Amino acid sequence: MTEILSAELKMEIKKLIMTTLNINDVNPADVDDELPLFGGGNKLTLDSVDALEIIMAIQRTYQVRIADQNLARYTLRSINSIAEFIETEKAKQHPETK
What we know:
Blueprint: H1 2-20, H2 48-62, H3 69-75, H4 79-93
Helix pairs in contact: 1-2, 1-4
């Protein structure tokens, strides 16, 4: 069940990033979950300004807080790391659903 939720969450994250950054020339399914989002050969070519927009979109959409720069850098490494962060934060907010 967790794998299905994770797959759905990862696709949501990809679509959120593409919508937020107005990326129309990449299919979300073509974005690798494990490759670095920044400078790592992924289909997306993102920069530091994009990172700020992604952080704001994640916080707004998932009602989580990315409190400091080190946490943001760690969280935004890949689609997998973003999904893991969101799932962990949601579990803290709603421990009874675990």
